[in-house]
Specification:
Layout lengths: L1 H12 L5 H5 L7 E8 L3 E2 L10 H16 L8 E5 L6 H12 L6 E5 L5 H14 L5 E9 L19 H5 L4 H11 L4 H21 L9 E6 L6 E6 L11 H4 L22 E11 H6 L6 E10 L9 H11 L4 H4 L2 E4 L4 H11 L12 H4 L6 H16 L3 E8 L3 E9 L3
Parallel strand pairs: 3-4, 3-5, 10-11
Antiparallel strand pairs: 1-8, 1-9, 2-8, 5-8, 6-7, 9-12, 11-12
Helix pairs in contact: 3-4, 5-15, 7-13, 8-13
């Protein structure tokens, strides 16, 4: 440890111009991930979690965190949940953690930055550790879209919507997708071809068992909608992948938002989904002290704003901003990229504008094929990305997503499971 501390001090005195060598160094104060797991992703309204309230989903995942980490729950000082549609998320995480076996000395909170909420929770816990507020914390992203969504219930105040961009914050997400497609000439064909590839990648990954090490089985109750009969089920696999999906089959689907455009469909847009993911974080020195496996190093995250009416292009601004801060090159230094596929329009745009190698982006498919539980996605991407980095023996993972009302967020991680 002494040599690592000396290396850290020398690095601060003589900062390297090579960002990659800097982020791949191992120092005692690094923020590391020691556990990254998730539930299966289930179809909202008709899938395995349709009768499972958010509190039980979170409770069940927290029980799995204790089981999988083999860490004394008293060591976890704070738990932060990223959630979008439940205003009572702070109540839920507090009650669920106490029910699952965490002590009352562990704190609990909720954050909401729409589709980046899971990553925001990770950033929140990491920043607390960096500043010395806590030594160990847990970030969760969770959403029951069966119960809620992110649609506004009423317009903003008249004084606010006098400003056009403020008024644009009320645009439905489908409208913003069509705006991206129309403004930047992202054709229906390009979107369907991208979506078909997402489905095919997810199918290959699921059949090959690539998701198995990231998913923890969750036992819950499901009710037959016709008879009302309840039965216990154990969910083990994502429900989103549609085997045999092709460009031709997707191209036959009618536009989902004809009042705004003719390019976005139910086949090339993200699925409405229920699910949760968890990320356990602490300093490297603490992980070594507690004999916890180190999966990855958290290097940082940032947010960038864009015009609300084209919110989907958010990653195209957040990614360069983060890489600039870390002195990294997207094409030379980044091995694997997870960009949320809220809509194929934004995924195609970001891939084209940033010049991303398609083989590096969402190798197991994305939200079009797997689903997009709003608050969960930012954490789910980390879980899936690190699992794929381990499989491919790749080092640097970049995650990013667009955010409703016109934002983008990005996070960077160094895989240590090589």
């Amino acid at each position: 440890m002494a040599s690592e501390r000396l290396s850290a001090i020398l690095n601060h005195l003589n900062p390297s111009k090579n960002g990659l060598s800097t982020i791949t160094q191992k120092n005692p104060d690094d923020i590391v991930i020691t556990l990254a797991i998730r539930t299966p992703l289930a179809k909202a309204f008709r899938g395995g979690f349709k009768d499972t309230p958010l509190d039980f989903m979170v409770y069940s995942l927290l029980k799995k965190v204790i089981e999988k980490s083999r860490l004394d729950p008293q060591m976890v000082e704070d738990i932060c949940i990223g959630n979008v549609s439940d205003a009572k998320a702070a109540y839920i995480v507090r009650a669920a953690m106490l029910g699952a076996g965490f002590p009352n000395t562990t704190g609990g909170s909720s954050v909401n930055r729409f589709c980046s909420s899971g990553l925001k929770a990770v950033q929140d816990i990491a920043n607390q550790i960096i500043t010395g507020s806590i030594e160990c914390g847990l970030a969760i992203g969770a959403e029951s879209m069966t119960v809620g969504g992110d649609r506004l219930e009423k317009p903003f105040h008249d004084e606010i919507i006098k400003v056009p961009e403020a008024n644009d914050c009320m645009q439905p997400m489908g409208q913003t997708s069509e705006n991206v497609g129309n403004d930047f000439n992202i054709s229906r064909e390009a979107q369907d071809r991208y979506a078909a590839e997402s489905y095919q990648r997810a199918e290959r990954a699921q059949k090959a068992g690539w998701f198995d090490d990231e998913i923890v089985p969750i036992t819950t109750t499901i009710k037959d909608p016709k008879t009302g009969e309840e039965k216990q089920v154990t969910l083990t696999k994502d429900e989103g992948p549609r085997y045999g999906t092709t460009f031709e089959s997707l191209n036959k689907i009618r536009p989902a938002f004809p009042q705004y455009g003719d390019k976005s469909t139910g086949g090339n847009s993200s699925q409405v989904t229920d699910g949760a993911a968890a990320i356990l974080l602490m300093k490297r020195s603490k992980a070594i002290e507690l004999n916890q496996p180190i999966l990855a190093k958290f290097c940082g995250a940032t947010v960038a704003g864009v015009a609300p009416r084209i919110m989907g292009i958010g990653p195209s601004l957040a990614i360069p901003k983060l890489l600039s801060k870390l002195n990294l090159d997207l094409h030379k230094d980044i091995d694997l990229i997870e960009i949320n596929e809220a809509f194929a329009s934004m995924a195609v745009y970001c891939q084209n504008v940033l010049g991303i190698d398609p083989s590096k982006m969402n190798p197991r498919g994305g939200a079009i094929a797997l689903g997009h539980p709003l608050g969960c996605t930012g954490a789910r991407q980390i879980v899936t990305g690190l699992s794929e980095c381990k499989r491919q023996k790749k080092k640097v993972l970049l995650t990013s997503m667009c955010i409703g009302t016109g934002q983008g967020m990005a996070g960077l991680f160094v895989n240590e499971q090589i």
